[in-house]
Design goal:
Blueprint (H helix, E strand, L loop, with lengths): L2 H18 L6 H24 L10 H21 L8 H10 L5 H4 L1 H7 L2 H33 L5 H17 L1 H14 L9 H12 L1 H12 L7 H25 L5 H9 L8 H16 L8 H24 L1 H4 L2 H39 L4 H8 L1
Helix pairs in contact: 1-11, 1-15, 2-7, 2-9, 2-10, 2-11, 3-4, 3-7, 3-12, 4-15, 6-11, 7-8, 7-14, 12-15, 12-17
């Protein structure tokens, strides 16, 4: 059996087991599992992976690339992704601008990278996520508060500055970020995992081993899609993925000498699910607006929840599919075609509805002409 297909079946079985456990696990219990993943298993895995790489200045390109991607997706969201919404749906447009450019690779991408590509690429993914976190934690928060102050009934500058300071501290206190900093310092002094006492080295390695199965079980247990806006959200996520494929293809065309694993990394990492952090920022703004008695909220919180609920399973399926057909997706021409097709498919319902409206208007005109109805004559008589 093909290696990639075999790995895919293994991962799907674990996710399927998580689906079977849904009824036995309460939503509150999932928070504990998520904390265990983000505070213990994932930091241990990233720590082990980072201490296996050779520290080079060229590695700084990965967080920079992620940050550039975030900015490009923010522009694309404004002009391509949010264009399906009408002008009077400003709250939803701002919600999309916060969510769609963000990435949450920890739960949606890292477990698959380590299985298919190995520790080296997981380390690169962790470094790339630093740039993404700067965008998600700091820049998106500043954007959200800018919109709030532009529309606020009351001004709360002091609260905003203290909140921004708290975000910087929370970024430093997050276990994954601390692990990256500590690992980079150790690498700077020429230390590796084998430099640790044996008992400590074995403990860290054993904690890292639980990461992939734990994340896959979490994905299976956490998937609870709300179908009220599923069609529209699925279309948005499909278009987002299509744009991402095109951006990855451009990069691969610019650097044709890249190895196949690196191409897969460049294709897969940006396909991560939307991050939860923008939702936290929007919730903070919503709380301030409740105190202000703002009648027209800046963001649509329910819409944001539905996007997050759909984003995780969508990204999981897409990433597994890419790795399962890896020989297919390392071809930049295939990436371009895939991106164009995915984007085109999302515009088909819009074009059909537009054609239906134009056909109905033509039918009304033909009906009036057939029966000799002159609407202009009526309007002139009334005047």
């Amino acid at each position: 059996m093909n290696y990639a297909l075999q790995k895919t079946l293994e991962l799907l079985l674990i996710i399927g087991l998580g689906l079977l456990l849904q009824k036995k696990v309460a939503k509150e219990d999932l928070k504990g599992i998520k904390t265990l993943i983000l505070s213990v298993a994932l930091p241990a895995t990233i720590f082990v992976a980072l201490l296996k790489i050779e520290l080079k200045g060229s590695l700084l390109i990965f967080p920079l690339m992620a940050l550039v991607f975030n900015f490009i997706m923010a522009i694309a969201t404004k002009y391509l992704l949010a264009s399906s919404l009408s002008n009077n749906e400003g709250a939803k447009k701002r919600t999309l601008t916060m969510l769609l450019p963000s990435l949450a690779p920890g739960l949606s991408c890292f477990p698959f990278i380590i299985v298919y590509l190995g520790d080296e690429y997981l380390a690169l993914a962790a470094l790339a996520d630093v740039g993404n976190k700067i965008f998600v934690l700091i820049l998106l928060y500043m954007l959200g508060m800018h919109w709030y102050h532009a529309r606020a009934v009351k001004d709360l500058v002091a609260t905003t500055s203290s909140k921004l300071k708290g975000l910087f501290l929370s970024m430093l206190n997050e276990p994954i970020n601390l692990v990256i900093i500590i690992a980079m310092v150790l690498l700077g002094f020429g230390l590796t995992l084998s430099s640790f006492p044996e008992f400590l080295e074995n403990t860290i390695v054993k904690m890292s081993l639980i990461m992939t199965p734990l994340v896959l079980l979490f994905i299976g247990m956490a998937v609870r899609i709300k179908f009220r806006e599923f069609g529209f959200i699925f279309s948005l996520l499909m278009r987002r993925a299509g744009i991402t494929f095109l951006l990855s293809a451009i990069f691969v065309f610019l650097f044709p000498a890249l190895a196949a694993p690196m191409i897969l990394f460049i294709v897969v990492f940006p396909q991560s699910a939307c991050s939860f952090w923008p939702f936290a920022h929007m919730s903070a703004v919503s709380t301030l607006e409740e105190k202000d008695e703002q009648k027209k909220p800046t963001f649509d919180i329910n819409f944001a929840v539905n996007i997050l609920a759909c984003s995780m399973p969508f990204s999981t399926i897409l990433i597994i599919s890419i790795f399962s057909f890896s020989e297919f997706f390392v071809n930049p021409v295939v990436l371009v075609v895939t991106g164009i097709v995915m984007m085109a498919v999302t515009y088909i319902p819009f074009l059909i509805s537009k054609l239906k409206r134009s056909n109905k208007s033509e039918e009304v005109v033909n009906y009036n002409t057939f029966f000799g109805i002159n609407t202009n004559a009526h309007s002139s008589e009334n005047q």
